[in-house]
Fold this sequence. Notes:
Blueprint: E1 2-7, H1 13-24, E2 28-30, H2 31-44, H3 52-61, E3 65-67, E4 74-77, E5 80-81, H4 89-99, H5 102-113, E6 119-123, H6 126-130, E7 136-141, H7 144-151, H8 159-173, E8 184-187, H9 193-205
Helix pairs in contact: 1-9, 2-3, 2-4, 2-5, 4-8, 7-8
Bound molecules: cytidine-5'-diphosphate (CDP).
Cytidine-5'-diphosphate (CDP) binds near residues 32 and 96.
Amino acid sequence: MIVTIDGIAASGKSSVSSGVARALGIPYLSSGLLYRAATLLGLDSGADLNDEAAVLAALHAHPVRLEPLAEGNRVWQGTRDLTDDLHSSTVDHGVSVVAVLPGVRAWVNDQLRQVPPPFVAEGRDMGTNVFPHAPAKFYLTASPRVRAQRRAKERPEDVDAIEAALIRRDELDHVQSAPAVDAHVIDTGPLDLEGVIGAILTGVAA
Ligand code: CDP
């Protein structure tokens, strides 16, 4: 079984996917963490993030591995755990530039498709592009203000700056962020975390 949970920036995908995966007793895969790792490696190597060849060279020089733990994914480069460096504002600002590079998308998708099911796959295009035959698909939304208020608990910037950055990222990501036609769309604004997880578990069981 594959469950896809896509959605716009800060719509709650990671926490929801972790909760759904734990309830089902299966792992989840965070595709966004791999895009973030590609961004970090590109920045660390001094690459121009628009330069696909330079970013791909950094990825091939320093292979990374996604550890799909249900309680929270981790990204490893050899024995170095990169995870805690992947949610900085610098990575937030660069990641949408890296995510449009076709070679980077292929690099992420290859890693995801090598994982044997069952799992929950979380991102932007899991239900449309990477796992189009998944039997259960969900798409999370919420207003920019609600999303910024949630993310303000995890970032040092104020809520207005976070909201502006989220709106910019929504625009840059819109091509790969469309919901699958067969996805259940859930507005997470009025729901708490348990409410969203419960709605998805009900949908999976239906
Ligand atoms: O948690 P948040 O929605 O802020 O971000 P994320 O899921 O970690 O994704 C970070 C970025 O990776 C997004 O803004 C997209 O640019 C890119 N991404 C993508 O293009 N396709 C995916 N399947 C997942 C992420």
